[in-house]
Structure formats: C-alpha cells, structure tokens
Amino acid sequence: MMRGAVLRTLTSFTAYLQVGLRASRAYLFDCVIGLATYPIEVAITYLMWRLFLTEGAGAMTHREALAYYALALLVARVGPSRFVSFRLESEIASGGLALYLVRPAVPWAAIAGRELAPAVVNLVVLTPVAFLVTTVALGRLPGVGGFAFLMVLAVGVQTLLRLIVGTAAFWMLQIMGLVHAVDLVVRLASGGVLPLTVFSAGVADALAWTPFPLLVWVPIQAMMGRLEPPGVAWHGAIGLFWLVALLAVFLALWRKGVRGYVGYGT
Amino acid sequence: MSGFAPPGPQPCDARSPAARNRDLLLAHFRVNLARHAAYPVSLILEQLSYLVGLVVSLVLWRHLFTRLPTFAGWSFDDVLVLHLFGNLFLALFHSLFMGFHSFHAIVRNGRLDTWLARPVDPRIAHLAASLKPEELLNRLLALVPLILYMRSRGIELDAGRLAAGLAAMLVGLAAFACIQLVWCYAAFWLDKSDAILAFLDLFYGFYRFPLDALPGVAQLALTLAAPLLLAVTYPARFAAGGASWTSLLAVCAASLAVLAGWAWAQERLWRAGLDAYQSPGG
Description:
Strand content of chain A: under 5%
Distance between the termini of chain A: 44 Å
Oligomer: heterodimer
Helix content of chain B: over 70%
Largest sheet of chain A: none
Number of strands of chain B: 0
Radius of gyration of chain A: 22 Å
Helix content of chain A: over 70%
C-alpha cells in the first residue's frame, strides 16, 4: 500500500517535471527560432532589392544596402509587432477584456507590455549583430546616441499605432485585413521595404511630416551618421508631437470602445 | 449495459470516412460563413482593407517602374499578374490552412482527445473547425478591381496558360500546406510551434515580389523550405507569357517532388506525434 503511494507520487512528479521541462524548452526554442529568422530576412530582402538599389544615380553601394537592411529589420523587430493589435482583438472578441477591466492595472498597457517582451529579447541579442554588420559594411562606428533617442520615440509611436488598429475590434468582428493593410502602408512609408530615396522629392517631403519615417528611416539615418544633432532634434520634436497626438486619438477610441463593450465572448 | 457508445461510426451511418470528412468540412464552411455574414458592415470594412493593401502595393510598383524599365525581366503588367496569383494563393492558404497555427494549443491543452474520439480524421476535424470562408470571400472580392484594371490596360491572359498556371499554383499550395503541417507537429514534442510558424509567415510577405530575382542558390533553398516560387512566382510568370510550357512542366514536377517529400514527412511525423502524445493539459 505504502509502496504504491510512493510510486504514484514519484510517477506524477516525474511526469509533470517532464511537462515543465518541455515548456521551458519550448520557450527557449521559440527564442532561438525568432532570432534565427533575422539573418534570413535580411539576406532575402537585400538579395531581392540589391540590383535596384545599387543601379542609377544616387544609388547605394552594395555594402550600404546590406547595412540598410540589417538596420531596417533590426528596427522592425525592436518595435512592437502586429501581434499587439491581434492580442487586443483577441481580448476584446473573447470577452477576456472584462477581466482586465476589473483589475487595477491599465488594460491596454498590460496587453502592450506583454506583447513587447520579444522585442526586448531582440533588442538585447540582435542589436550587437546589427552594429557589427553596420560597422563592417560602412567602415566606421555607427552613431548610437541619436539612434537610441529616436528609437525610444519610434517604439512609442509604433505601439500606439498598433493599439489604435487593435481598437477596431470593438466595432469589427475581425481585423486581420485592416492589420495587414496598415502594416503594409507603415512598412512602405517608413522605409521598411525600400529606402525613402526611391520616392520623388515631393512624396518624401510630404512623408517627413507623418509619423512613418520616424519608425525606420530616421533612426537608420542617425545610425549611419547621415543626421546631424539639429536633425535629430527636429525629428525628435516631430516624433514627440505624434506621440502625444496618437495617444490622444487612442485614448478617445479606447474610452468610446469600452463604454459600448459588453464582453459577450467565450 | 451502460449507455456509453464507443468511438467510431454509428451503425446507421453508412457514409465512408472520406464522405464524413467532406461533410464535416462543408458544414463548418457554411456555419463560419453564416457567422460572418451576420455582420455585413464588419465584412465590408475587412474587404476594403484588403483592397487598400492591394492598391498600396500596386502604387509602389507603378512608382518603381517609372524609375526602371523592367525588374529582373518583369514589366508592370507582369507584376499585375503576379499580384493576381499571389493574392489567390494567399486567399486559399489563409482561408483553408491558417487555422493550423492554433494546432499547438489543442495538443497542449489536451483537446486533441476530443478529435481522436470522433469518427473523423483529427486533422480534418481541426481544419474544418478553423476554416475561414470569410477570408476567401474578402480576398477574392478584392481581386475584382485588379482584374478590371488589368483588362483596362489591355492585359488578356491566354485561357490555357491561366488554367495551367493555376493548376501549378494549387500543387505548390498543397506543398506549402504540408510544410506547415510538419512544423505544426513540433507541438507534440515542444508544446509550442508558433515560432516555427512565424518563420513560415515571414515568407508570405514576399508573395508580391518576383522572387526569381534572387540568386539561384537562394531560389533553391526557398523552394525546398517555403515553395512560394513554385506556388506563385513561376506560375505567374508562365501565365503572363514569360515562360515556356516545358518550363511549367519542370515547375510542376518540382512542385510534385516537394509535395511528395513533405507529405511523406507529414504522415510519418503525425504517427510519431500521436505515439508521443500524452494529453497532459486540462
């Protein structure tokens, strides 16, 4: 009798230890795979556009193009992913938001914070890699100060954009199309697909007043040493303006959405 | 005698397993479509979003072609055909197979048990439950303006080439779906498979770009790991008249080989996964 109980206890302990170990291994694996996709994405994007970027007047060298994509895709990964919008959608649609609303935590901040965690891992691990690639490609040390300052603003603006898109779930059954459309616009207008120099001067000037270049193009310019301190300050001021404006828009949408929220999901 | 009915087909159900799987798929398709059709405004807004994405992408390409006459042998008209194929591929893939992204959840929480106890293939059951017919509808409707625009530019695709290109795309789509299934089964050993699937997601974004601009080695690697070239780029190039029938046959042969390889791996891993499955969730 006693022997059976001990055996059952040991078996249960071992089985659930295995489950726990498997979960830990899964998170480690997630992390490794997430990081391993970075060089692949840089390589495909660079190889895809290299001929276009390195031909014609005012073109980049191959090394500059490589450095550009190493940085552009780093910046994209350090910012919040589209999963911030999807998480907000999921909580709203499933009724899970109701649980957040009765807690003392700020619901949208909690959701955004949770989804930003992979970005922090990317920041710590991938930044040295991107710095190394940039230094080797350009033959000089990158400008880190202006880059770091602009990146803080960029992450804030990007997070708010994602949250604003996510609030559409208060009024729409599904927001996947909207998320993808906004994502595409943001990637193109921020220089995430191609440098903004591919656009005509008029388009580039108009874009400069929007929040988009701050998300990728401007921090990269600072990093590649093409932005002097007054330029960093000017773009910082534009970024601050958009941070405040988008926060106001988001809070207005959030309040309106929560007022009409019934949390009927399962 | 207890009232417990053992799993398996009931005596009165004379349908074959294939017919049961088919009926299950159709039933879920109808239910999911009806659920989304109940909210028409949401459906229309979602559809408009896809349209915006398509227009933005085409505006970019239009702008790029003002700066260069061709891109790796592609003209703007060819890129329109590429978008047609790319969006068709995505419409089918997202509506049919994207639900497998949540497969790891039913393995982890033990809900796979309920599928295993039913007289249908658990893979089909999960596929049916996660169908997104509204995605198919939305994405296909977004293609109507593209087709009208192509016609206004005088692009007339040869019907035979279009049909053959679409057939090649379907083989590539099946290969892509098998690859996704294989990675989903990692959940049997790792609890999670989102990171690997996010890796596959990485490639979807390239559907609107002519991937044959990549160097040969990169094309080969991509073909084996995520055959977007076989499913979209080559068939679109062929339908646009930029490749011969012989090359399409070669593409189909390559697609079938990739499909056969991944389908074999899928079946083996599914069996191995079921052997390893312990249903620890609750």
